[in-house]
From TrEMBL:
Pfam families: TFIIIC_delta. It comes from Photinus pyralis (Common eastern firefly). It comes from the Eukaryota. One of its GO terms (cellular component) is transcription factor TFIIIC complex. This is Transcription factor IIIC 90kDa subunit N-terminal domain-containing protein. GO terms for molecular function: histone acetyltransferase activity. Residues 118-385 form the Transcription factor IIIC 90kDa subunit N-terminal domain. One of its GO terms (biological process) is transcription initiation at RNA polymerase III promoter.
């Protein structure tokens, strides 16, 4: 029986990929997920940001991640406190001078000291939607207390990067300098100056922070960044929703509260309807929950403080999580090798506290799996599945080991993530035994394990959200696992699918699976295709359905007495012409569509044909009128994949995954700009918006007909639109298997 249990546990997690990083880990819990499937990894030199890129035609046996690196900028908090430590440090008593040199928040600007390296120690993602078009922003704090906010931008050259939009520490210091910092009088002694400097540093230096949920009041969308300081104070910074490509954010201090804790080390926000619960853990081990009410743009109210753990046990709080299940609120606090579980009843009182000892090694990851189940990871690679129960207001737990088949005798863990649909688990590891330094340049690596207990195809088929936005982890696991096991991604789909009755999200799923399966068949002659449509055919069906959906939206606006701009009327004319051509060519029968689609086509074509349209747009390349999907004679151009209108100006939207382009004027029709094929938020391509600059999008002409060609220009026709990515033109039959350097190279 024991042997059977071990075999069952071994089969639950399957290693899919090892992602190497050329850096060392910065902290024990060093990987943080976001609500939009991004993961930030804290290393010594900065922050890596990973995002699944949904490249379904990727034939490599690796996870399709996009990767960015954020290097912290230089900011010395001590130089903004109003007291120059260099003017008196040599006159300080011996132990005071030692303290001044050793404290990072005081010694940044010492003239005779070596420059201090900025190293991230904490990072958190905001709620979804703080940036227009449903994007998150990242806040990160360095070892010197510099707290910055980073946002993702795409400039006019389509260069993507995270840029600093706000220095929260600097804003807090300006607030404190007016409210708390007294005037320094002439003749003050060195000791009194040093004491005043320490006091100011204690008030101003951030030691922990957390985001609140997104709040919408008085037609304004904003959030709060709760910043904890060394002296136990909490500063409330309001940050308004940002527009795409803004290089700044509206950040302002609107409140302050003293918790009377000693150096908060971790903070967590739990939403409670329109209010919230702020949970703070400190260096001495105490944990306090504070109710926050009466939230508005200009203020909040702190009340009803309770201790979740009032004992100063000397174990700092490294992490806080909240699990809500069956009206029970479980607060999870990581304190070294102990997971302190606190049960809060419906009245808001502490019903029970349960310290769960995981072993002799510290906890490096805690994640909510589903329901009342959490996953706990320790430093030595031990993963435990813990189930929480409330029996008569007493915490009861059941737990078991989840065996991870890996070489833990030479590795140590630094973080844990669980994908949105629980189909893969990521573990951040580093080498603890370097047998060959030349081969081990990548000090940190992310291990990606498939959760065999979850069937990704079944999760996709049970999708009721009408969007693929949060289901790309399932598609990526199907692709990668299919390549490893020589199994088609769409294996398991019924060969008798009724495409006529399928929803848009089901068609998008079939398109992605078909694209992945075709790549597998093309690169492995042994594999055979399944009897479903090809990816090009699925894309054509989607093009028909998307055209119909967009026309319904425009015609509905007209039917309700609204007006359409010339752009939308021209688009309606093009879409109508496309649908007429589709019917005339007999594409409905070729694509195995039936009466439902045909009736919808006839109805919408009849309605659209009764309208009077303006003159069609003129192509900037051939100067002919645009009357279809391509000009006559045909040439390459950039068209909006929803409206079919030409995209000739900045700004515009572009998909990170499939590179589809969408016209910026469609924001009149859609609140959130999602890729019509991938369902991910589109990247806004345009000039970066600087502070004090008009944030309204300005169309920038890219009319190449009027551009003078340089004398050294090679007159050669290049179709840029055909080059989507490097994999397209590779002859994979001539490629050798790419073998990454992994832990299997005789490391003992």
């Amino acid at each position: 029986l024991k042997i059977f249990q071990i075999v069952a546990m071994c089969s639950e997690l399957k290693l899919l990929d090892t992602v190497p990083l050329q850096n060392k880990s910065a902290i024990n819990i060093g990987i943080i997920p976001s609500d939009d499937s991004q993961y930030c990894i804290l290393v010594e030199d900065g922050i890596y940001v990973f995002k699944l890129c949904g490249l379904m035609d990727n034939f490599l046996k690796t996870m399709s991640f996009m990767k960015w690196f954020i290097k912290p900028g230089d900011f010395a908090l001590s130089s903004h406190l109003g007291i120059d430590i260099n003017s008196f440090i040599t006159s300080l008593p011996q132990f005071d001078m030692y303290e001044a040199v050793l404290r990072l928040d005081l010694s940044e600007e010492l003239k005779e000291a070596s420059p201090l390296k900025q190293q991230p120690v904490q990072a958190k993602w905001s709620s979804l939607g703080l940036v227009s078009n449903n994007n998150c922003v990242l806040a990160a704090m360095s070892n010197t207390g510099a707290l910055r906010v980073y946002a993702f931008t795409t400039n006019e050259s389509e260069i993507e990067e995270f840029i600093e939009v706000c220095n929260v520490t600097e804003i807090c210091v300006r607030y404190f300098s007016v409210k708390f910092f007294p005037t320094i009088f002439r003749g003050a002694t060195c000791s009194s100056l040093f004491e005043e400097l320490k006091k100011r540093a204690g008030i101003a230096t951030p030691s922990a922070f957390t985001w609140t949920h997104l709040i919408s009041k008085d037609d304004e969308v904003f959030t709060f960044l709760m910043v904890g300081h060394y002296d136990g104070g909490v500063t409330v910074c309001r940050i308004k929703q940002m527009k795409n490509n803004e290089t700044f954010c509206d950040c302002r201090v609107v409140g302050y509260f003293q918790t009377h804790l000693k150096k908060p080390t971790f903070m967590h926000w739990q939403q409670a309807n329109d209010d919230g619960l702020l949970i703070v853990g400190d260096l001495e081990g105490r944990i306090k929950a504070i109710s926050v009410t009466q939230i508005s743009q200009e203020s909040v109210k702190f009340e009803n403080e309770i201790f979740l753990w009032g004992e100063s046990d000397g174990l700092r709080t490294d992490c806080l999580k909240v699990v809500v299940h069956d009206k029970n609120i479980y607060v999870l606090a990581v304190k070294g090798s102990v997971l302190v579980i606190t049960l809060i009843d419906e009245s808001g009182r502490v019903a029970d506290v349960y310290p769960f000892h995981v072993g002799d090694f510290i906890i490096t990851g805690v994640e909510h799996y589903e329901g009342n189940t959490i996953l706990v990871l320790t430093y030595t690679g031990v993963l435990k599945e813990v189930m929480l129960f409330n029996e008569e207001n007493k915490i009861k737990i059941k737990w078991r080991h989840l065996f991870i088949d890996y070489k833990w005798w030479s590795h140590r863990t630094h973080g844990l993530i669980v994908s949105q649909n629980r189909v893969f688990i990521g573990v951040l590891v580093s080498m603890s035994k370097l047998t060959n330094i030349k081969k081990r340049k990548d000090h940190v690596r992310l291990l990606v394990f498939m959760n065999v207990a979850k069937k990704p195809l079944q999760v996709l088929l049970n999708n009721e959200s009408n969007t693929l936005t949060s289901y790309w982890d399932c598609l990526e696991v199907l692709r990668l696992n299919g390549l490893l096991d020589r199994k088609l991604s769409n294996e398991g789909l019924s060969p008798e699918l009724d495409y006529d009755k399928m929803s848009l999200v089901q068609l998008k799923m079939c398109l992605a699976l078909a694209k992945s399966s075709e790549v597998m068949v093309r690169n492995s002659p042994v594999m055979q295709t399944t009897p479903t449509l090809k990816s090009d055919e699925f894309k054509y069906i989607l093009k028909i359905r998307l055209a119909m959906d967009h026309m319904y939206r425009l015609l509905d606006r007209l039917a309700n007495g609204g007006q359409l701009s010339v752009f939308h009327m021209q688009s309606l004319d093009l879409l109508n012409a496309f649908l007429k051509e589709t019917v005339a060519k007999g594409m409905i029968l070729r694509l195995l569509l039936g009466k439902l689609t045909l009736d919808g086509l006839y109805d919408i074509i009849a309605t659209a044909s009764e309208l009077k349209y303006p003159d069609p747009p003129v192509c900037v390349w051939c100067e002919e009128k645009i009357i279809g999907l391509s000009c006559v004679p045909a040439h390459s151009d950039t068209r909006c994949c929803i409206s079919f209108m030409p995209v000739t100006h900045l700004p515009y939207y572009k998909c990170k995954f499939c590179k589809s382009t969408v016209h910026v004027k469609l924001t009149d029709v859609y609140k959130t700009m999602l890729c019509p094929y991938c369902d991910i938020p589109l990247s806004y391509v345009g000039r970066l918006i600087l502070k004090d600059q008009d944030s309204h999008p300005v169309e920038i002409s890219v009319d190449l007909r009027k551009a003078n060609c340089k004398s050294d220009c090679v007159e050669e026709s290049v179709n840029v639109d055909e080059v989507e990515h490097a994999f397209t033109y590779l002859d994979t039959n001539e490629l050798l298997d790419i073998i990454q350097i992994s832990d299997d190279d005789n490391s003992n």
